[in-house]
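Protocol step 6 of 9: fold each sequence in the batch and record its structure tokens directly after the sequence line. For illustration, a two-sequence batch is reproduced in full.

Sequence one:
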Amino acid sequence: MTSFKFRDGDMAQEILAAIERYDVDCQFMHVCGTHQDTLVHYGLEELLKEVGITIRQGPGCPVCVTTSAEIAAGIALADAGITVCVFGDMLNVPTPIGSLADARSRGGDVRVVYSITDAVQIASKEDRNVVFMAVGFETTAPTTAVPLIKGVPENFSVYSCHRILPPALETIFQMGEFSVDGIIQPGHVSAVIGTEIYEQFSKIYGVPQVVAGFEPLDVLMACYMLVRQIAEGRAEVENEYRRLVRREGNPKAKEMMDRVFEPVDRAWRGFPIIPKSALSLREQFGAHDAALIHEEVLQCLPDLEEELRGCRCGEVLRGIIRSEECPLFGRACNPHKPMGPCMVSREGSCNIAYRYGTLNR
């Protein structure tokens, strides 16, 4: 019997056996760094391949999809004497002009924070301008909205790099670079936006979808539910994560996002400009919109290549290749000397593959 790296191995074996009885050859995609961590950490990729399921990772890492141009904006702000507050995963993401860590090493005031609240507190104690680089999907966007609604210091502003997931899914379907037999949707994003918004994809593209939690059994059950839909000729949105996710999502969180942000067109790393896929501050919050306040600094940014030479993060984020297929993986590129964000962020496929993969066993 298969040896499992987690409890509830007997139940996992039953789920895998149930999948195997369908005798499938399927390719699924997920769009969540935490799901990728679960798949690799607990050895689920290999177990699922044995029963006919291959899973690709899509653009589920918010740091990874943030473009070099946006990171370069943070670098320019720091070089201009502005305090820039970022999450830790952003600090070492490389660009053709360096990283935020490089800006800090030459005297820029770049600070790692754990939340926007930390950045607001810094602004309340400083005379200089403070910018919070807001990164994340619908999971974190409401937390950015709350302080802006309640009120922040005059010297505080937000540079919004927030993305929203559904437009990226639409782009993946439209690009059609590979066949997707089913989608595993992220539990935390879905807790905010709900499951109803995904229904359009099943109707238009005939793709089964399952919203899943993050435990090994959650992911295995999501795969079983997708296989069952395929066997029964259905293409619906099912909710494995019912203990947290509702069809309508979190109305209060959605209301706060809508009050503060408006969707705008923006490029994602590895993707073209995706219509209405990012969140920009609405006009009434312009006094705290770093893109407007520091326009003179930001308009001088140079045109940049998205990736360092040889880096294939963009293809990893589109599910075209696995991290291990990049020729730089584990050689020229590793967490100590990353060539791209997928190796920097702990939600990035390359970082996860390196931490749990054969190179470090």
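Sequence two, same batch, same settings:
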Amino acid sequence: MEKCINTYFFKNNEIINSGKFSPEMVEAGISLYEVIRVIDGIPLFIEEHLQRLKASASLINKKLWLNPSEIEKLMKELVNINQVREGNIKIVFNYYKEDNNFLAYFIPHSYPSDEDYKNGVNTILFHAERNNPNAKVVNSSLRDSVNKKLKECNAYEAILVDENGYITEGSRSNIFMVKNHVVYTAPLKAVLPGITRKAIIDICAENHLAFEEKSIHYNELGKMDGLFITGTSPKVLPIRSVEDNSYPTTQQEMDIIRHCYDEMIADYIESK
């Protein structure tokens, strides 16, 4: 169920007490969304998130009635009125019958611990795929099914597998794999174009790391040297296991990527 935390949220241009938030505001109709991490009071990579939001709207033939500068202004005001330095903001364009609404609110977050970054996390396989992977659209049914399975297996993330057995993405992240010093991830057409995903690809190019977009069958997981998760909350997070397959959590390529991504975040925050 959709949750809103902290004291206030925005519905259109109105500041509302969070006690009046209802999950139906998001779960009824069609909802386009982005989740943006706030660090030191700064919404991280907000420009890229808003570009992706616009692209998602175009893919499902919807229009956004707020421009990027208006959305950014509301997000900064949301951070200020809630006096939050760190957290995750969800922004939503909801289309329900003739009633369209913009929402911006803080959601519960869980960031990996130092131990997770050192030792990696456990993951599972989940055979499912999103109907339109390039568009970020709320899919409550898939989310609830995955969350139930994650809880049952005490796993951090579920790696989605399509009907042909190929790995696409995580349920709330992108997945990268390393084999023989080559970094792999699923082709863009099969996944959400993650903001962190693009940053990782750029980092590989800048550091002359061999990289390839390639469809990898889940039966090949046992042949991989390492795997890692990327996303808004986890940043760059090693995977310790995928069900029965275990991996070392220190890889030369992974370490370079994680260090460079942390530097990218620090530079962005400093620029603001």
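Proceed to step 7 once all outputs are recorded. Observation for sequence two: The mean pLDDT is 94.
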